[in-house]
């Protein structure tokens, strides 16, 4: 089953459109062992409410070799729980280097996972990522309009729409898939733009980061979804992992509540 198929299947079976971000911050813990235990506990406690998980690679890279080991543990635990993994690495480089990133994050033990990719170097640099994702049942999520306030500095003036057109063009090569292997990142912090990006990329899975800590609300996101309630994943990291300090039950309650709010928004 491909990444897109797996998350869509989870959305339909478990009625969840929530992507749980796992971004462990060392300064929140006594030591690395404490961080590891809490991160794995949050993963297990929130799994019933998640369509997928999204580890942000930066937080694991910041921990050095121990972080890389933890990332592999998190991915293995997610697989055991049946949770698709979306790696947030925002990778992008000249083609030959992109090929190495793709090999590292979209094949081997990460085959079937998804990776966020940065199109800034040009559309030809997306090819190694897309080809590797397709060959391994994975997915890429291309940055179209990011959630941060400064995104308009470079993504304004029609640039996001141009990237969205490329996402649609790439997905035309997979006419048989409900949701093909090229998805798009559109910040949940731009609720007024979601329906337009949905229309520009009608078959792309959308990742909507910014729920919770960045101020986006589940009730504002319905424009991103298809009529059946599929096609988008709303993502929260701090708002789940650190919902109430390090209280794991509060993390589970926050994930359940985001799931329920997303579902309620779609019923209106
Ligand atoms: O446009 C984007 C793309 C990715 N992110 C990442 O998502 C999480 C958001 O964390 P919160 O704690 O829920 O704010 C983080 O890993 C970002 O790097 C994003 O925020 N916006």
UniProtKB/TrEMBL annotation:
It holds the Pfam family OMPdecase. The active site is at 90 (proton donor). Residues 17-253 form the Orotidine 5'-phosphate decarboxylase domain. HAMAP family: OMPdecase_type2 (MF_01215). It comes from Deinococcus deserti (strain DSM 17065 / CIP 109153 / LMG 22923 / VCD115). It is an enzyme of class 4 (lyase). This is Orotidine 5'-phosphate decarboxylase. It catalyses: orotidine 5'-phosphate + H(+) = UMP + CO2. It comes from the Bacteria. Keywords: Decarboxylase, Lyase, Pyrimidine biosynthesis. Its EC number is 4.1.1.23. Pathway: Pyrimidine metabolism; UMP biosynthesis via de novo pathway; UMP from orotate: step 2/2. GO terms for biological process: 'de novo' pyrimidine nucleobase biosynthetic process; 'de novo' UMP biosynthetic process. Belongs to the OMP decarboxylase family. Type 2 subfamily. One of its GO terms (molecular function) is orotidine-5'-phosphate decarboxylase activity.
